[in-house]
Task: inverse folding
């Protein structure tokens, strides 16, 4: 009796995830983004592709860090071919730098619109197009309604969308699957070594649908993310399995 | 099928145009003058001036005496050609082959066009009534040859439509001037008593040639259709062109959309049948008030999909001003390319940058925000950071060389670099601290310098010493200093980017 109840609850949970736009991932098409424990924070323990990710930046330095982090994720998304579209109205991204994160800059199409309101229109059109691996949208404003439109477009096409919000003053509610911030941290070198080390970030998952928010420290080393465990982090990020137990 | 030509004679071209502009001139004698050997000569008149006896070639002073109150305007050379070109474009609604027939006429090749208006008589009637409605006094002529149509339009009293093969009979009663001959020849013919073409048309060719020269024979036989004569169209006819003429002028958006969709569909079916796709298309619309406008699109990929092309046009429908109504749509495809086989995409798995889907997306975006806002970068062999990536519009172009991986470059680049106040303890070392936008950053770790010189063969200038600097909070910056070893120059510092 108990077993059947458990099965029913499990099935309901799975259905709920499906209705909320999370596609169950078959084991063979499961992609690992090398994010380590961060992937465990998401439902089904997999980084959601075909979803909308929102990145909040309050300073240009953070925007650079987010750019690097997104490029690292894009490396995996672009593995199967395809192109990526980068939409912005005040773009400062320097294409050759993306090569360091494993992305060929010539596989990104940059669309630099002159009016801010066109950014979301172009983003929506791009998200509707199935031939695209990922869409990155740099914008300042994103209302709930606009994010919902983007989310609906994604549910049809299963394209991964990244919204990079610069100069955010008000944290409004959006329909995004996850809300992140990425801040640069002091790079670590062996004591006594001069110079600047590998890019090192504090990645905060502020909100995630059906998942567990948390904070992690990551480093980008040899074309891959390297997770740097910190003692207090393990307390903040309890094992996700406990919720289902 | 015999050719059919229409010649239109604008008898009072310049004065009619002036009267359209200024309605008050309609009832007044008007003449155009041009300077000639220090005096003003009349070169064009209107019908009222003509009644008073003013003729072309007369001195302006004489015209003033003959017609008191005559309005004289000075003309600019080439004005008639300009007007005729405009009228020729207007005439494109009747036939795609229109030629400007200087100084005062137009030639139209209407072969196979007249049935669209319900016959030759109705065709000419429609044309004449519309041109009269615009305010022009015209005389048309229709015949199998250009020469005969020209002659009939200018010299015939009646019978403006010469039946098929009836050139000889039509030319007989006309004066020799109808054969487009030079003034000296006309005077010679007149002196000999040839007042009609009929009086010398039966003479043998060799006799005519000996007496009057080869040009006259050529003109005569061209008018009769025994020598070839060609029409040089004003616009090269576009091979892929479709048009729809509407019985009733339309103005609402829905009807315009339906019409344009049907038009695109016709063109696409034709292109599909020939294995082509269009790369650019121009939609021209003619309004009933004589104005016209056009919208054009371009695609990144040869396309023959009606819905896609329609969507591109639909983005621009806001620019279409129907006014009182649109009566004609012309869709031209000036650039077509063989459409590639769709099957090879199936093998590739996920589509690449040049796939049809992506190309269509970029068409849509380009139509809305402008094509020059879409960039794709390819590596260039330059060290200077601003030149390291080249912009390309082509989606299929692949990089010739690899992207450099050995140099560390910032993800965010400031263009142009912004000056900072920096303090360095030792020369050739990274600064200890800097102030940027009123914020003080204390540098704890730094890499560098990486010296990048201006490429002297492109641009003059010094070098930059770049440092990767990390401040206390862990923010990483790309700073550079200008040369400090040149006499009379102190090192200035700039921030050029942010590292992740």
Result:
């Amino acid at each position: 009796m108990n077993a059947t109840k458990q099965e029913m609850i499990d099935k309901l949970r799975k259905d709920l995830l499906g209705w909320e736009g999370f596609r169950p991932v078959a084991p063979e098409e499961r992609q690992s983004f090398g994010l380590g424990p961060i992937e465990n924070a998401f439902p089904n323990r997999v980084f959601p592709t075909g979803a909308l990710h929102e990145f909040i930046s309050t300073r240009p330095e953070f925007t650079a860090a987010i750019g690097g982090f997104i490029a690292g994720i894009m490396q995996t998304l672009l593995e199967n071919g395809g192109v990526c579209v980068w939409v912005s109205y005040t773009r400062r991204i320097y294409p050759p730098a993306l090569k360091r994160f494993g992305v060929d800059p010539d596989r990104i199409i940059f669309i630099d619109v002159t009016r801010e309101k066109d950014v979301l229109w172009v983003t929506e059109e791009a998200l509707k197009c199935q031939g695209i691996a990922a869409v990155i949208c740099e914008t300042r404003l994103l209302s709930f309604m606009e994010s919902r439109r983007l989310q609906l477009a994604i549910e049809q096409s299963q394209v991964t969308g990244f919204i990079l919000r610069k100069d955010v003053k008000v944290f409004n509610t959006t329909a995004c699957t996850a809300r992140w911030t990425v801040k640069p941290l002091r790079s670590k070198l062996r004591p006594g070594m001069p110079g600047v080390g590998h890019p090192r970030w504090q990645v905060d998952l502020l909100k995630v649908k059906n998942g567990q928010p948390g904070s992690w420290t990551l480093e980008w080393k040899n074309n891959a993310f390297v997770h740097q465990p910190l003692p207090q982090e393990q307390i903040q990020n309890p094992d996700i399995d406990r919720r289902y137990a | 099928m015999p050719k059919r030509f229409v010649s239109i004679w604008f008898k009072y071209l310049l004065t009619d145009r002036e009267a359209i502009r200024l309605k008050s001139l309609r009832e007044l004698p008007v003449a155009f003058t041009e300077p000639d050997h220090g005096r003003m000569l009349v070169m064009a008149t209107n019908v009222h001036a003509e009644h008073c006896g003013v003729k072309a070639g007369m001195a302006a002073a004489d015209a003033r005496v003959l017609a008191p109150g005559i309005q004289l305007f000075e003309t600019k050379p080439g004005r008639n050609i300009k007007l005729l070109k405009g009228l020729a474009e207007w005439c494109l609604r009747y036939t795609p082959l229109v030629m400007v027939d200087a100084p005062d006429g137009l030639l139209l090749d209407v072969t196979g066009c007249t049935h669209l208006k319900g016959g030759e008589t109705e065709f000419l009637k429609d044309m004449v009534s519309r041109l009269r409605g615009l305010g022009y006094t015209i005389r048309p002529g229709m015949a199998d040859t250009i020469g005969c149509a020209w002659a009939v339009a200018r010299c015939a009293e009646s019978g403006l439509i010469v039946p098929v093969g009836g050139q000889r009979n039509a030319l007989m009663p006309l004066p020799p001037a109808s054969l487009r001959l030079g003034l000296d020849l006309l005077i010679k013919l007149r002196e000999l008593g040839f007042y009609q073409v009929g009086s010398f048309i039966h003479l043998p060719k060799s006799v005519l040639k000996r007496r009057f020269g080869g040009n006259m024979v050529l003109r005569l036989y061209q008018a009769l259709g025994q020598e070839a004569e060609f029409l040089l169209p004003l616009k090269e006819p576009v091979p892929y062109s479709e048009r729809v003429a509407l019985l009733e002028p339309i103005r609402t958006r829905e009807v315009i959309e339906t019409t344009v969709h049907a038009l695109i569909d016709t063109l696409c079916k034709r292109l599909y049948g020939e294995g082509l796709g269009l790369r650019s298309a121009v939609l021209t619309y003619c309004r009933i008030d004589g104005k016209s406008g056009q919208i054009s699109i371009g695609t990144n990929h040869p396309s023959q999909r009606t819905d896609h092309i329609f969507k591109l046009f639909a983005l621009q429908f806001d620019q279409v001003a129907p006014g009182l109504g649109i009566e004609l749509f012309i869709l031209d495809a000036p650039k077509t390319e063989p459409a590639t086989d769709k099957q090879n995409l199936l093998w590739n798995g996920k589509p690449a940058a040049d796939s049809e889907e992506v190309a269509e997306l970029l068409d849509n975006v380009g139509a809305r925000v402008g094509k020059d806002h879409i960039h794709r970068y390819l590596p260039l062999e330059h060290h200077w950071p601003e030149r390291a990536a080249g912009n390309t519009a082509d989606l299929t172009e692949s990089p010739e060389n690899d992207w450099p991986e050995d140099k560390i470059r910032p993800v965010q680049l400031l263009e142009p670099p912004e000056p900072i106040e920096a303090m360095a303890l030792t020369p050739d070392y990274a600064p200890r601290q800097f102030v940027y936008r009123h914020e003080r950053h204390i540098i704890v770790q730094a890499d560098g310098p990486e010296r990048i010189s201006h490429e002297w063969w492109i641009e003059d200038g010094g070098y930059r010493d770049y440092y990767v600097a990390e401040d206390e909070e862990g923010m990483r910056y790309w700073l550079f200093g200008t040369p400090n070893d040149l006499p009379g120059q102190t090192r200035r510092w700039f921030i050029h980017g942010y590292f992740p």
In short: Residues 412-499 of chain B form one domain.
